[in-house]
Batch of 2 targets.
Target 1
Amino acid sequence: MQTFAVTIEGEDLEQVRIALNRAFIPTVGPPMDIRFVTEPVEQAHEGHRMSAVLDADTAAAAEARVKDHLPEGDYEVRAAEPWPPALTP
């Protein structure tokens, strides 16, 4: 088995995080979108991208497992990539 990161994009990622964590699929993100110059801090909101990190035999299997556990909604699942990312010198 190999570890993969699968990026998920969409709205209401808190529901995605809850669903994946219940399926024992750890998540990373989403980052907070904060507009330091044009918006007050009170208007900070959740980002629209997060990653699931999981073990699978193939990248396709990792993507399928994530898709199987997503809640109802309009989410885009990106291609799985090896985790951790390769370090370049």
Note: The first strand starts at residue 2 and ends at 9.
Target 2
Amino acid sequence: MVPVGLSVLGLIEILKKELPSSSHDPLRYIGALIILVSPVFDILSGSWAHLLSLLVLSTLVVLLSIGLRLRALMYTGTAFILADLAGMIFRATEDRMSLLWIGGLGLGIAVIALAAICENHRDRVLARIRSLSAALATWE
């Protein structure tokens, strides 16, 4: 299904002037979803290879969105990366329950550390967020 999704995304970019601008984002979401949903059914059966392929595909969609400056693809790719990482954690904990505890503690420590770093460098973080927000505002 990946070639079909890429074809949809390519056709949207080629026919951008002929298509109404209100249909660009919904069609981009459809193309990204065709690419990213294809390995999901095999993931439900417990396939690690499909979990890894979804991670690679999601990363490629995010990189494509950066190259094309498209927010719709960025949102979709990021959501699937997060869902895939959660799926990997839950899949790994089926065999070893202690991995869930270790992952949870690690995530908690990382969130607390990130909050402390952001608080110490508040002005720089806010300036960076503003510049990133201004750059994303120019994207389609």
Note: Residues 1-95 form one domain.
